[in-house]
Amino acid sequence: MIKKIGILTSGGDSPGMNACIRACVRTAAYYGIQVFGYKRGYEGLIDNDFLELKPESVSGIIHKGGTILKTARSKRFMTDEGIEQAVNNIKRSQLEGLVVIGGDGSFKGAMELSKHVSIKVIGCAGTIDNDLVGTDFTIGYDTAINTVVEAIDRIRDTAESHDRVFVIEVMGRDAGLIALRSAIAGGAEALLVPEIKHDMEDLIEKMKNWRSSKSSRIIIVAEGDETGGAYKVAEKIKEQYPEFDLRVSILGHIQRGGNPTCMERVNASIVGFNAVKAIMEGRSNEMAGIINNKICFTPFSRAVKHRQSLDKELELLVEILSS
To answer: Is 59 exposed, middle or buried (0-12, 13-18, 19+ CB in 10 A)?
Structure first.
């Protein structure tokens, strides 16, 4: 019988983390398990900075963005001294399980931790980038793309009023999955992402054939695209097409915040519930995810080393629908 577990949120915050925390805490309470919530991710483990979480502790948080436990990227946890301190605190608190809500770096930290202490560790994929293998949608992704699409809709209103070209930069240093789906839903004319090399040249060529009847032109750029971001893209376009009335809009961190969508809250709750049950069943070093509407578990070693490639059909969809 598991009697005591910890929960932490690590890395970048994402909408739905609170819903996942809530599901973990209430599932644990249902089965008589005590829960410690560690503040600021692995920093909290090192500093032994925690609070006991009970069902009433997570009332009224399911609709809130961010994370009530705070989050951080811990450089100290990358040192032998930091890991040793965290391990000592885990042993002192007699933790038997740990739920880590985060992304790639968070799971690497969990893998390292489990080498030094006997504890069951289960991850819940919390990142707006949706760049982990082992789940169809990570916690935060659905809300982020809905935020982007709302912004695109508003920008298109002013673009159409002035016959302007807008270059909109969205988050995605290593992956263009936010850009891809928001480009489809926002009716964008072009897409530039890290996964597609030399796409700037393709864009310049494509712009020659844009219909003159188009009253607005929206170009979605992932921040990690090889061109160097929205301003670089705009510069290159202006060099080739000085006649265009061009504007740049960088959406930035608004994509991380806001109330999680309905689907976000449901999926985060399902994953949190199953993360606690997995610990009870003796599973460890795995990420809980949802694929084809079914819960599944992926070893950390596979979830952190692989990135999803872009769906070729969705790429084609952007091309065809933008004509």
So the answer is: exposed
Are 15 and 131 in a shared domain?
A: yes
* Neighbour-count burial of 174, counting CB atoms closer than 10 A to its CB (0-12 exposed, 13-18 middle, 19+ buried): middle
CB atoms within 10 A of CB 84: 13
Domain range for 221 is 143-256
Q: What is the pTM of this model?
A: 0.92
Same domain, yes or no: 90 and 63: yes
Task: For residue 174, give both structure tokens.
Answer: 């290593």
Structural domain count, the chain: 2
Cα 119 to Cα 89, 96, 98, 114, 288: the distances in Å are 12, 5, 7, 6, 17
- The CATH number of whichever domain residue 161 belongs to comes to 3.40.50.460
Residues 133 and 34 in one domain: yes
| Tens digits of residue pLDDT in 80-105 | 999 999 999 999 999 999 999 999 89
Q: pLDDT tens, 194-250?
A: 888 777 888 888 887 776 666 668 999 999 888 889 999 999 999 988 888 899 999
Give the DSSP letter string of 96-159.
Answer: -EEEEEE-HHHHHHHHHHHTTS--EEEEEEB-TT---TT-SS-BTHHHHHHHHHHHHHHHHHHH
Q: Which two tokens stand for residue 20?
A: 């996942």
**Residue 167 dihedral angles phi and psi, to the nearest 5°:** -105, 115
Residues 10 and 131 both lie in one domain: yes
Q: Which residues of the chain have pLDDT under 50?
A: none
Q: List phi, psi (to 5°) of 259.
A: -70, 135
Euclidean distance between CA atoms 134 and 306, whole angstroms: 10
Active site residues: 129
- 113: CATH: 3.40.50.450
Residues 53 and 16 sit within 8 Å (Cβ to Cβ): no
Nearest CA-CA partner of 166 in 253, 239, 235, 245? 245
